[in-house]
Amino acid sequence: MIFDGSNTVLVIGAHPDDEVLGAGGTMAKHAACGDEVHVLIVTEGTTHQYSDTDLIEEKQSHTRACADVLGATGVHFGELPDMRLDTVAHVDINDTIETVCAEIEPDIVYTHSRREVNQDHVDVHDSTLVATRPSSGVSTVIAYETPSSTDYAVNTDGFTPSLFVDISEYIDRKITAFTEYETEVREFPHPRSPDALRAIATTRGAASGVAAAEAFDILRSYR
Fold first, then answer.
1. Within 10 Å of residue 179's Cβ, how many Cβ atoms?
2. 216 with 137: CB under 8 angstroms?
3. Distance CA 77, CA 79 (A)
4. Which pLDDT belongs to residue 158?
5. Which of 62, 99, 164, 165 is the one with CA 20 to 30 A from 205?
6. φ, ψ (nearest 5 deg) of residue 25
7. Contact 145/113 with Cβ under 8 angstroms?
8. Is 94 exposed, middle or buried (0-12, 13-18, 19+ CB in 10 A)?
């Protein structure tokens, strides 16, 4: 079982808020079970969307506040260019993830699905698979879905979850943590709204026989 208090967990997101949107309830569950939870945000998450580069520090502050709510003990920032990872050498993205993996030695890594409309997410997915190759010591690699990206993707075979995590006890904490990202919260029916996040969790829960769940695709698991 992956929730046994013996694991170091790393949740990788391309941008600030990806981690909580995709795996916030599962992060809280890991932390509550005694696992050590870390977050890596690969880009600075600001310069493409906003002209004020001072928002980088604000976004990092939001990430730390979100992590505190979820019980994550470590927050790491790659500070690569937002929405421009396709201009960054693949080896540099690999190195950003490999550096954190070497530092914390995670057992379980969560990352983006490749079935995404956001190219940064796809690049992070690809580099995660390099950084967590069999020789890395990582035992399990899992992909999460990202509202307003995974669900917007076309010309793919779709996100097909192979793992559902019961977050019935943690859905409220996930939503509270997400609202720490003041600049990212949208009004319903946008997928990045509190009501939509609850609806997604309810739908995933109904598909797996619980009140609320997060859905994942197991990419690699070594036993």
1. 17
2. no
3. 6
4. 77
5. 62
6. -65, -40
7. yes
8. middle
* pLDDT of 205 over the 90 cut: yes
Instruction: Using the predicted structure, report yes or no on whether residue 49 has a pLDDT greater than 80.
Output: no
CATH superfamily of 8-221: LmbE-like (3.40.50.10320)
Assess contact for 93 and 85: CB atoms under 8 A: yes
Token pair recorded at residue 173: 């904490």
Q: Where are the domains of the chain?
A: 8-221
Counting Cα atoms < 13 Å in the Cβ hemisphere of 25 gives 25
146 pLDDT tier (thresholds 50, 70, 90): very high
Predicted confidence at residue 213, as pLDDT, reads 98
